[in-house]
Amino acid sequence: MKPLLELTSHGLYCELGDFFIDPWRPVNKALITHAHSDHARWGCTSYLCHEHTVPLLQLRLGNHPYQGIAWGKSIFINSIEITFFPAGHIIGSSQIRVRYKDDTWVVSGDYKTKNDGISGSFEPISCNHFITESTFGLPIYQWEEQEQVYSSIRHWVKEAHEKQVTPVLFTYSLGKAQRVIEALAPLNIPIYAHGAIANTQEILIQQQHSLQPVIRIHNGLKPIDFSKGVVIAPPSADQTNWLKKLGPSQRAICSGWMQVRGNQRRRNVDKGFVLSDHADWNGLLSAIEATGAQHILATHGFTHVLTKYLNERGYQAETLSTLFGQDEEEQTNIETS
Ligand SMILES: [Zn+2]
Ligand SMILES: [Zn+2]
Fold first, then answer.
1. 191 Cα–ligand 2 center, Å
2. In this predicted model, what pLDDT tens digit does every residue of 93-114 receive, in sequence order?
3. Do residues 152 and 256 both lie within one domain?
4. Is 164 exposed, middle or buried (0-12, 13-18, 19+ CB in 10 A)?
């Protein structure tokens, strides 16, 4: 019997249901795990995603026929049962369960097992075949408690104010930015945002997500204003004229890659905070175990290390060669071994 999901030139395909999951080329029917650019691409005839993902796709891909669905509600496409479950990665991010008779596949998309209070809480879903990401699939990746990281960020902002320079935090606009902005709220200072982050934040607030408002950076603002608040910008804004206009600053980047010391030096920032929207090594292992699946297919990042580890422990694990792993955080992968 053919597997329920197979890799084709357009992406992960279910022939019986005639649909794709996170296809990388335009197709008829696309099921989308989340709104990051390596998973949600332009040009498909129809899209099915979690209801919180719809406005984000609208913002990033423009007008297409999007259909939103709630977590835990099943629908059938050509007798294949489809259900979305929270993946805890970013707002709307979902694992997709595909079920036919007694064969159950779960496509994790990107996920993190720790609840960030914004993205929904990751749920382990039992299945026979689990397609897992492995962006941080090396044992060196062990995240500190997020509250600890948030408190270090707040401390660093206060230090900047004492030095009378503007604290600038580089975060990815969808996911990390929302977490960092919430973490800064207790400081009660103005939070200034680069346009890319302000756009995302405004759309999410319009959609009734209870998130902190930000002040969009515009020409009427002066260095003196920024130095009493904090600036959030995407990493691409570093070393640009846009950044210079903010006046004297100290700069930090928030990313899982900051766990490897050399990466902070290579990015030439003053500080690196280890904060990720992906599961760490133990998070990946616990998520895999909790599914009960024997057959594990790994995508993104260090798949060879993860699959070797799993095979030695009795799983049937293999790499699934996809084109995922190019979203903003994943791209920052600089050599780590
Ligand atoms: Zn992602
Ligand atoms: Zn990804």
1. 28
2. 999 999 999 999 999 999 999 9
3. yes
4. exposed
